[in-house]
Structures are given as structure tokens and as C-alpha cells.
């Protein structure tokens, strides 16, 4: 037991035990445990690539990517362009992925240059950049001269705040791909889980390539990387391109699963649950692995999925869901950031 706790980390072990306890309490509160587990799988799949986007920036030494909205708005812009061009269903999905990737490469390169210019204050600047890009896009969503009736306001100009994807046959297309139904309450969204695991495998392979090892070396010690002839700035830029691309692809996957694309202030706080998930999985602010992403997204989404209805059942007549979500999410982030020196020394 002691060895297992050391391998996964005490905070992760405590949260896992807490999740199991909540499921037990939910069972005695007449909540459907299979439904809670099914919802956990769905939410883990839809959030997985957004959490995976944390890994390149962590490994490069810039810390958790609080500028995740930069990649998210690239993905949102790509998917609304795909709708405007008339694509539907799977064609919409793949065109959105391709457009999001192309746009995110350019934007990620520019963001990487910015991060290199503010070394030592990356997380602060990342948070400011994430908030700023969302505010800027709020203006752009109103100004874009798109004409698709599926996206525009009924009166006036600009795009709607929430765009339905079922009207273009794109809602939950990954969820329903090869979905497995076990009993009345448990569904495995096979297609979405496999898509997430495919990207996990790609990132796992990448960090065993020459470029991936160089990025990890830069994150571990700038002095060692410089002495080895590794370009610190170039590898940090490459890592930020990769994290932006993953964020852009991640929001396309998230949106199809949710059934809606949320514009305007929708992406504003999306970095925080992604950061919390990778940290809850055992990563630190300076070191992380693909396994931390998988464990973290399942635990974090499972905790939220189970804790909120159980809390509302135990404390009948109240709605603690949003309060509890913020306490859990921000508490995890705060704890992790206090461990930066302990877990992320770059000396």
C-alpha cells in the first residue's frame, strides 16, 4: 500500500479514495452509480485533449498553460468557418480539425515568441493572454460577416452566443461512434475515448523523439540544455505551438460532445479545470506525463460528476454544485502552485 501511494502521490490517492467514498454515498442516496460512471467516461473523453494540452507547456518549463483559451478560440473560429462553408457531419468534424490545426500553428508560434520574451513570468502572462484573447474575440464574433442561418442572430449582426451542432448533424458524432450500451444506465462512448487515447499515444511517442527529449531537457534545466547545444527558445516555441494545437483540436471534440459551440465568454475559464485535472493526476507545475493526464481527467471529472449530485441530495433544498466545483477545482490548483519549488526546480 505504501509503495502504491508513493507511485501515484498522496494527493492523488486521497482524491481517488474520496471519489470512491462519494460513489458509495451516492449508492445509499439512491443515485444510479452506473449513470455516474457513464457520465464520468463521457466527460473524461470530451475534456481529455484539453487536459493533454497542458503537457507540452509543463514539460518545456513554462508551467501549466493558463493561456489555453488561445488554442480554444482557434478551434472555435475553425469550426464556425467549417459551418459557414457548408460542411456537415463527419466532413464538418475533419475540416474543423484541419483548419484549427493550421490556425493554431500560426497563433501558437506568435504566443511562443511572447512567452520567450517574458521568461520568469510565464504563468502570469499566460493567464492575462488567455483572458485578453477571449475579450478580443467577443468583439470579433460580433463583427464577422458570416451569413449561415445556423449561426447568426435572428435580429442584427454577428454570431450567436451558443451554436447548436445538431442542425448540421455534428452533435455527439464521436460519442455515438461504436458506442457500447451496457444495461439501461451505462454507455461507453467508444469513439471519443479511442480518439482521446490516440492523441495520448501520439504525445507519448513525441516525448520519446529527439524533439520531445529536447523540450523535456529545456524544462528540466536551462543550464544543462544550453551546455548540450539545445536551443532553449526554439524548443519553448515548439512546445507552445503543440499546446495551442491540442487546445484547438480539444475544443472541437468538446463541442461535438456537448452538442453546442460556446462563443464569447465560453472559453474564459476553461483553462482552470484542465490545469486542475493534470495536477490532480500527479503532475507538478514543471513535470508531467501522459499517464498523469489520463488519471487526472478521469479523477477530476469523476469527482465533479459524483460529488455535485450527491451534495445536492445530502443537502436537500440547496444547489451546491457550482460552489463545490469551484472549491475543488481552485483548491487543487492552489495546492499545486505551492509545490512549484518542491516539484519543479530547474537548477
Overview in brief:
The protein is mostly helical and 347 residues long. It is built from 16 helices and four strands. A hairpin with a 3-residue loop joins strand 2 and strand 3 (186-188).
Structural write-up:
The protein is mainly alpha-helical and 347 residues long. Helices cover 70% and strands 3% of the residues. The longest helix has 29 residues. α2 packs parallel to α14 and α6 packs antiparallel against α12. The chain has 16 helices and 4 strands. The chain has one domain: ABC transporter involved in vitamin B12 uptake, BtuC. The C terminus is likely disordered. Strands 1-4 form a two-stranded antiparallel sheet.
Topology:
Blueprint lengths: L1 H7 L1 H19 L4 H20 L1 H6 L8 H17 L4 H29 L4 H22 L18 E3 L8 H4 L3 E3 L3 E3 L1 H17 L3 H11 L1 H6 L4 H27 L1 E3 L8 H10 L9 H25 L6 H18 L1 H4 L4
Antiparallel strand pairs: 1-4, 2-3
Helix pairs in contact: 2-14, 3-9, 3-12, 3-13, 3-14, 5-6, 5-7, 5-12, 6-12, 10-12, 13-14, 13-15, 14-15
Order of helices and strands: HHHHHHHEHEEHHHHEHHHH
* CATH architecture level-2 label: Orthogonal Bundle
Strand sequence of the main sheet, in spatial order? 1-4
> SS-based structural class?
mainly alpha
* Mean pLDDT across every amino acid position: 88
Distance between the termini: 32 Å
Basic shape:
globular
Class in CATH? Mainly Alpha
Q: Percent of residues in helical segments? A: 55-70%
Question: Any idea what the radius of gyration is?
Answer: 20 Å
Largest sheet: 2 strands, antiparallel
The name CATH uses for the topology is: ABC transporter involved in vitamin B12 uptake, BtuC
- Residue fraction in strands: under 5%
Low-confidence segments? 340-347
Q: Into how many domains do the coordinates divide?
A: 1
Q: Strand tally, please?
A: 4
Q: How many H/I helical runs?
A: 16
